[in-house]
Recover the amino acids of this structure.
């Protein structure tokens, strides 16, 4: 469909899709999104697992659960604006601490093209930590204590218990968290929109940002919709691949 | 128990429906204006026998501007008891996208500002009204009252589709305190009057400011700023066949080199290197920068800041001439074709852009210079700032309006800003980036023309 948002709509077959694949901006957006995903998914899942295991062992669980979950229920715009100030190169908290404690001049976190995506990924990990952590906690609770008791009687160390009981029996939860993190990271938009507007030098120009800019800046709504369809297919394909792969590494207790 | 369940379910449905219905409704929009305009009259706003017509209008603006627009709307409503106009400001960031979404959804305002780049699209789509038929027979409105350069893209094939709300020749705002504390004694306007306001003089000042721990100049990441620097060196941006040639024209290359060197030395700070939200006006008001470039729209905020000492000077020249051509940005007031009350909407538009309207909006340090003739006095009022006369002189001394490509190629400004980011934020090779710059922009222009 060729449509500028207001005027006449014209059916143009698959021309939008072929144009997408010849568009350097599309590939740039896809590359940035993959880079972001590579940083966010493993980082987010591992940190959430560590925090969940830590919380599973200590008291005041509910307090810490609320503490970590608070960013999840905070609006993305509020989160973005707060972090913009924290990461401000001139008078942001982070650079001030770096300067005062370590004598290091901090970078322009959101204004340096090389650091923009890692900075946004870091914020996203912090933002999504509570959600993943709560799910991991529920997964940890569901593991039957008898496995640990049997392992202890057999003389297995804590680390071996973690490796051979916790990780395998937590795999259904891990699988769910990984799938959701993949989907979420491929749909990243708010952070790039609020904090960097896809810049600098299109360093944080993601696929959803490309969908937005194609539609609402270039007024090519048909092309924008075609990118959205491609994104849907990418997410579906990744999910199916993971679903297929999960047969080998996901173990259910019963 | 069963009864309680039914009541609870109904209550839940009502609670869910209320916000949904609220979300779907909107006051005072073009699509649901309340009264009929079947009884025609020459001044529809003042006929007390007619039912009250609800209309809405939208534009962007900084807090100072929005305040002035609200005051104007209130004043208009008082003088036109039959029209109840509502002002719905829209943030400048992504204004086009927001207004387009409203228009597409049939919820667009009756009257709105359209940026030059959007006007041709709105005309082609039939989204805005031609003003000629509405102005016919009007005794208090004439298209001839306005400066010729005001119309820009709104004048197509001899038909008027909007009116330039006002004009805004770009100038350098300088912070006197910052300059003085850097040891600068002769102010830029004094140099300008002696025809000594050159790139060298500007560079010298920014270096002194930088040495005194402030930013010399905030270099905006906009196409307009780039164009002005190039034309200030007699460079060519688009050649005669409409090709973008800033990487081929030697004077254009020299201009970009001058800016690149300034950014490298740290005398100029490129605005994309500043965090989003840390705008040049905020930096200026907190005495952290010596020079920023803008039109008169900074004035409503600057004049409110206690102790802020500022003045303006035209663009520095590298051609030996005192005045160099700079681009005048303009925005246009247009009427939504779906407005059910076109006459009343035109009544507002007329009052907004006529002498009284522009006087109301632009007096006491308003946000722009008039687009209507014989209103120079309001720009000079109260010496805000001392050299306000430069704005009036700018139009007579070689300023120009937007390039045609600027009107017609969607996304051109964003693409230019992207290449400026590459030039001034990354360490990529200068010459090869300029070649890619030309190629990238020309590809975009060609694609746009093919469509």
């Amino acid at each position: 469909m060729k449509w500028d948002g207001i005027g006449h709509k014209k059916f143009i077959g698959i021309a939008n899709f072929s144009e997408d694949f010849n568009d350097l901006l599309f590939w740039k957006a896809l590359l940035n999104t993959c880079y972001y995903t590579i940083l966010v998914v493993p980082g987010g899942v591992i940190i959430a697992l560590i925090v969940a295991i830590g919380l599973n062992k200590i008291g005041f669980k509910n307090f810490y659960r609320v503490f970590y979950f608070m960013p999840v229920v905070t609006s993305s715009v509020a989160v973005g604006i707060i972090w913009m100030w924290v990461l401000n190169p001139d008078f942001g908290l982070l650079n001030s601490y770096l300067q005062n404690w370590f004598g290091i001049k901090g970078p322009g976190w959101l204004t340096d093209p090389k650091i923009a995506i890692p900075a946004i990924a870091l914020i996203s990990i912090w933002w999504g930590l509570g959600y993943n952590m709560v799910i991991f906690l529920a997964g940890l609770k569901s593991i039957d204590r008898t496995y640990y008791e049997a392992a202890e009687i057999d003389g297995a160390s804590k680390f071996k218990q973690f490796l051979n009981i916790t990780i395998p029996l937590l795999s259904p939860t891990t699988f769910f968290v990984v799938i959701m993190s993949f989907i979420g990271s491929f749909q990243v938009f708010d952070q790039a929109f609020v904090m960097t507007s896809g810049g600098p030098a299109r360093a944080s120009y993601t696929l959803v940002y490309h969908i937005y800019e194609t539609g609402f800046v270039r007024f090519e709504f048909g092309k924008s919709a075609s990118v959205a369809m491609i994104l849907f297919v990418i997410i579906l394909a990744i999910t199916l691949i993971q679903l297929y792969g999960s047969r080998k590494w996901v173990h259910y207790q019963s | 128990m069963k009864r309680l369940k039914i009541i609870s379910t109904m209550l839940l449905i009502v609670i869910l429906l209320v916000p949904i219905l609220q979300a779907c409704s909107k006051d005072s929009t073009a699509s649901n204006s309340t009264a009929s305009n079947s009884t025609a009259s020459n001044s529809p706003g003042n006929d007390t026998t007619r039912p009250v017509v609800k209309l809405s209008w939208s534009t962007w603006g900084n807090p100072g501007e929005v305040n002035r627009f609200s005051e104007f709307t209130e004043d208009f409503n008082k003088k036109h008891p039959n029209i109840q106009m509502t002002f719905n400001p829209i943030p400048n960031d992504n204004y086009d996208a927001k207004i387009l979404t409203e228009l597409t959804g049939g919820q667009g305002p009756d009257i709105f500002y359209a940026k030059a780049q959007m006007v041709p699209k709105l005309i082609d789509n039939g989204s805005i009204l031609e003003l000629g038929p509405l102005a016919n027979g009007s005794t208090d409105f004439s298209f001839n009252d306005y400066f010729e350069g005001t119309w820009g893209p709104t004048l197509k094939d001899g038909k008027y589709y909007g009116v330039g709300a006002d004009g805004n020749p770009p100038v350098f705002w300088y912070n006197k305190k910052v300059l003085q504390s850097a040891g600068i004694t002769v102010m830029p306007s004094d140099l300008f009057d002696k025809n000594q306001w050159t790139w060298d003089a500007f560079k010298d000042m920014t270096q002194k400011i930088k040495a005194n721990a402030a930013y010399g100049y905030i270099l905006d990441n906009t196409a307009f700023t780039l164009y002005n620097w190039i034309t200030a060196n007699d460079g060519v941006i688009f050649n005669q066949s409409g090709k973008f040639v800033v990487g081929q024209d030697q004077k254009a290359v020299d201009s970009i080199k001058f800016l690149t060197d300034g950014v490298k030395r740290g005398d100029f700070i490129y605005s994309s290197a500043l965090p989003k939200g840390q705008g040049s006006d905020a930096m200026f008001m907190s005495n952290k920068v010596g020079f920023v470039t803008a039109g008169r729209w900074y004035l409503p905020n600057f004049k409110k800041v206690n102790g802020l000492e500022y003045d303006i000077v035209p663009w520095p020249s590298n051609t030996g001439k005192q005045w160099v051509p700079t681009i005048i940005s303009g925005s246009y007031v247009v009427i939504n074709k779906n407005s059910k009350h076109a006459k009343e909407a035109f009544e507002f538009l007329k009052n907004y852009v006529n002498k009284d309207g522009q006087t109301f909006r632009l007096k006491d340090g308003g946000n722009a210079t008039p687009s209507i003739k014989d209103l120079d006095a309001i720009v000079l009022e109260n010496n805000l700032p001392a050299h306000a006369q430069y704005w009036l002189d700018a139009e007579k001394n070689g300023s120009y309006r937007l390039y045609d490509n600027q009107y017609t190629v969607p996304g051109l400004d964003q693409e230019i800003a992207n290449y400026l980011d590459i030039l001034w934020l990354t360490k990529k090779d200068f010459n090869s980036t300029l070649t890619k710059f030309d190629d990238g922009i020309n590809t975009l222009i060609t694609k746009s023309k093919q469509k």
About this structure: The two ends of chain B are 65 Å apart (CA to CA). The first helix of chain B runs from residue 2 to 24. Confidence is low (pLDDT under 50) at residues 21-41 of chain B.
